[in-house]
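Researcher: I'd like a candidate sequence for this fold, 257 residues long. If you have to choose between options at a position, lean toward the conservative one.
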């Protein structure tokens, strides 16, 4: 059996009870933290909380050579741990399909995601979000200005009146986490200077939510990662009220559809 367990958004306590039980019952526990990470807990914290050894795999050890994980699942119960919800990344879907092809039974234990937290913290309704995008560091994409993968999604969603969730680049092995102010500066310079919402440390005891023009957010500091940005589309009056009350959005930016 190979059970995929989402660890939630912040620390060792963010996991669901079902996920905690799956980890407790497993013979071996594997994890990856290159797609996302828990900023409120180290691997040692997780091991102490769950009273188990966790074998961390890098990208190659999951995507190119997952044989240890698959063999452990063939001969016993193995869990594969990730931050957030475990099936957001295509990497994990691929691993699950490899297991199924070998006749290994699989199970998924879900957890909160950055997307659900962004909707809940900002008051923007989840069914009014369009396609999400990831804003990479300049050196990671090699293009001049913003990559089309970002601007095309933003423009298409705004044309349709939909909100855009902008994930911010993570280079965990280098200790680099794009901040919301840096992201806002990139977007303001290469895109329209529109209303946006910065969300910092979703899932932690003290998340921060702030709404303003991109150029204004670029001049603020939002503290420790992880951060993300939301670029709202058309606003329902309840969404506008929520951004004003929960994110201190300037009234002149809250045009209601």
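Model: Candidate sequence:
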């Amino acid at each position: 059996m190979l059970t995929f367990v989402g660890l939630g958004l912040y620390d060792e306590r963010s996991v669901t009870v079902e996920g905690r039980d799956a980890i407790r019952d497993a013979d071996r526990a594997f994890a990856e933290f290159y797609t996302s990470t828990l900023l409120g807990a180290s691997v040692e914290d997780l091991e102490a909380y769950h009273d188990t050894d966790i074998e961390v795999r890098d990208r190659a050890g999951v995507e190119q050579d997952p044989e240890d994980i698959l063999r452990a699942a063939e001969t016993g119960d193995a869990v594969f741990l990730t931050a957030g919800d475990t099936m957001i990344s295509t990497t994990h879907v691929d691993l699950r399909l490899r297991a199924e092809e070998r006749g290994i039974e699989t199970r998924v234990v879900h957890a909160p995601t950055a997307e659900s937290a962004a909707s809940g913290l900002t008051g923007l309704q989840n069914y009014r979000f369009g396609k999400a995008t990831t804003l990479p560091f300049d050196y990671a994409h090699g293009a001049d200005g913003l990559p089309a993968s970002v601007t095309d999604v933003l423009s298409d969603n705004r044309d349709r009146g939909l909100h855009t969730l902008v994930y911010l680049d993570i280079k965990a092995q280098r200790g680099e986490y794009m901040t919301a102010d840096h992201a806002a500066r990139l977007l303001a310079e290469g895109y329209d200077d529109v209303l946006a919402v910065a969300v910092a440390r979703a899932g932690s005891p003290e998340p921060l939510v702030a709404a303003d023009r991109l150029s204004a957010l670029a001049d603020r500091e939002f503290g420790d990662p992880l951060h993300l940005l939301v670029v709202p589309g058309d606003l329902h009056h309840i969404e506008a009220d929520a951004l004003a009350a929960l994110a201190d959005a300037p009234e002149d930016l809250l045009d209601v559809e």
